[in-house]
Structure formats: C-alpha cells, structure tokens
Amino acid sequence: MMTGFRLNLSPLKEPLGFVKLVEWLTAIFAFGSCGGFSGRNVLSVFCGDGRNETLNADFHYPFRLSQVFLIIGNQSLCDHSVTTTYMVGDSASSAEFFVGIAIVCFLYSMVALLVYLGYMHVYKDSDFGPIFDFVLTAILVFLWLVCSSAWAKGLQNVKDATDTEGLSATVALCKGSNITCEVTEFANMRTLNISVVFGYLNMFVWAGNAWFVYKETRWHSQKFSSPSGHGRQQVPAPI
C-alpha cells in the first residue's frame, strides 16, 4: 500500500471534504467573534443637586468581571467618598471553554483536510481512519452543544452584570435615596451574540458531517452489503 502524499482536490467537490472546509471557516468565526472582544459601558451617576458624574465599566475576554476595577482607590462622587469597587461576575470558564473547543475544531479541520486532500488513498484503505474520524466528530458535536449552551448562559450573565441594575447594585452610592445611577452608553455586544449563533451553527454542521464520515466506515458498508454464503435457494425439480 502506497502511503506517500498525493494531492487530489476532488474531495472538496464531495460532501465529506466540502463540509470539513465549512467547519474550518465556522470555527474561525466562532472563536474570533468571542476571543477578541472588549467593550465599555458608561454608568452615569446623577447627584441630588443636579450634577452628574460618570464611571467607566471596561470588560473584555475572558470576562473575569470580579477582577475588573469599576472604581480605583478612594474617589469622591457626589461629595461622597467611595472606596475601591470591583465589578461582579465571572464568565471566564464558559468563555474559555467555548473558545477552546472552537480552536480544537479549527486545528482538527485543518488536519482532516490535509488527510482528505493528500492521503485519501490511505484513509479509505484502512478501518482506523474513518472510524477515528467518525468517533471524534460525534464527540465534537456533543461538545459544541455543551460549550454553546454554557457560553450563551455566560454571555447573559455578562449582560446582567454590566447593565443598569447590575452596576447599580455594585456601587453602594447608587443605593442612596437622592442619587440615581443609569447606564447611558452600552458596549456593542453584537459580535458576542454572533459567537453564540456560530456555536450552535457549528453543532449542526458537525452533526451533518458525522453522517458523511459514517458512510466511510465499515459499519455502514457492512450494513448494506449482502450476506455472503447465502445464495438463492434452489427449488427441487418435480419427479
């Protein structure tokens, strides 16, 4: 059996290779739209005497909000001394899990495309290649479901912690009777919303690809092959 590299672009014209290329692209959009995010919400503090002051709530990936300063050192707001205050919340585990799965899928898609385009003759001649490909694809479908759901919940926690209610609950001064706080400028979280969409899209794409990979395994070929050793039953000739 020849195991050398043989460049053949024809798998890209078939579902097995074309869907793998789509997976590679959607993985890029998934971790790119989440991993590179940074934003700022502006909290306006309206004092009782008509003055207003502002606080900047800066947050970014991986969204460890509990380590982000909202107020640094002792500051004076509305003639009140305010101590160091951190934001509340931590969505780092779900965000890093999501980005990690996306990077793993990105790398695996590149390796799989290399095999499809250069070593397809080896891939089809062995049982290990298609079975390994199918099992890993099925695992990644499940992981996409888990990490996308976790990140969707984590993103909602980020939104809750950085809106008017979340930031007002963090700053003790905002709980005063004659002082009101309101977020007047919101960060654009469109890319984060898109990352969740691409997470679930990846799940469906990988699920569809699992079927085409399954067709390359011996399990599929054995299912549809006719049993050997069972010929047509002969009818005895009449006497």
From TrEMBL:
The name on file for this protein is Synaptophysin-like 1
* Superkingdom of origin organism: Eukaryota
Grouped into one coarse class, the protein's main location is: membrane
UniProt keywords (A-Z) are: Glycoprotein, Membrane, Transmembrane, Transmembrane helix
Q: Is-annotated flag, keyword Glycoprotein? A: yes
Q: In the UniProt record, does the keyword Nucleotide-binding occur?
A: no
Q: Name one GO cellular component term.
A: synaptic vesicle membrane
Q: Where in the cell is it found?
A: Membrane
**Species assigned in the record:** Seriola lalandi dorsalis
> Which InterPro entries does its entry note?
Marvel, Synaptophysin/porin
Question: Of which family is this protein a member?
Answer: Belongs to the synaptophysin/synaptobrevin family.
